[in-house]
Amino acid sequence: MSNSSSFCPVPKEQQPINEYQELQSSWFFGWVKLDPGKYITKLLWVGIWSLIVTAPLAAASFPIAKYPIQFGICTIVGSSIFVMLATVRLYLGWIYVKNRLYGESIFYEESGWYDGQTWLKTPEILTRDRLLVSYEIQPILARIKNTFFTLIGATIAVIISWLLIY
């Protein structure tokens, strides 16, 4: 990889392949590369920690002693919103790198916001980057989308149960 990118004028930290590797090894964005059990566990932890915020808010609206079902539903829906926001953030990070890898050119900044340049990828780099997108990033994006739509479906089911209570 380093031989084909050695003539690339794009600073190392702005090269899409390096952005991909950095994202892949990061604490948060690396979650989607974990096996399914660990990935779901991470998202469950987001949900559990978000209960710290959502439970008191739900208790303010629905005292647990008087409205336990409404309290529970409110807490679950509120918590699922935090998990959905986490999945949206995962998606945005990975789609950014996907677009940078898939594009024929790379926009980069040499020393600041005022001196942006565009570099056309060589055919070899473009092919490598697009293969990376096809075999590595597309499955990641599919996993995040499936997670998000599962959360949406579960949240809608909980909201429907709320409507059935009244």
Keywords:
disordered N terminus; mainly alpha; 166 residues; two-stranded antiparallel sheet; 4 helices; CGLD27-like; transmembrane helix; DUF1230 domain-containing protein; transmembrane; elongated; membrane
State the gist of this model.
It contains four helices and two strands; from the N terminus they run H-H-H-E-E-H. It is mainly alpha-helical and 166 residues long.
Description:
With about 170 residues, the chain is mainly α. Helix content is about 70%, strand content about 5%. The protein is built from 4 helices and 2 strands; from the N terminus they run αααββα. A two-stranded antiparallel sheet has the order 1-2. α2 packs across α3 (about 70-100). The longest helix has about 45 residues, at about 125-165. The termini are far apart. About 20% of the residues are buried. This is DUF1230 domain-containing protein. It comes from Chamaesiphon minutus (strain ATCC 27169 / PCC 6605).
The average pLDDT is 92
Largest sheet: 2 strands, antiparallel
What's the number of structural domains? 1
End-to-end separation in angstroms reads 61 Å
Shape type:
elongated
Q: Helix fraction?
A: 55-70%
The number of helices is 4
Record field, number of beta strands: 2
Radius of gyration: 21 Å
Spell out the helices and strands N to C: HHHEEH
Identify the strand order in the major beta sheet.
1-2
- Which structural class do you get from the secondary structure elements? mainly alpha
| Relative strand content | 5-15%
Uncertain segments of ≥5 residues (pLDDT<50)?
1-5
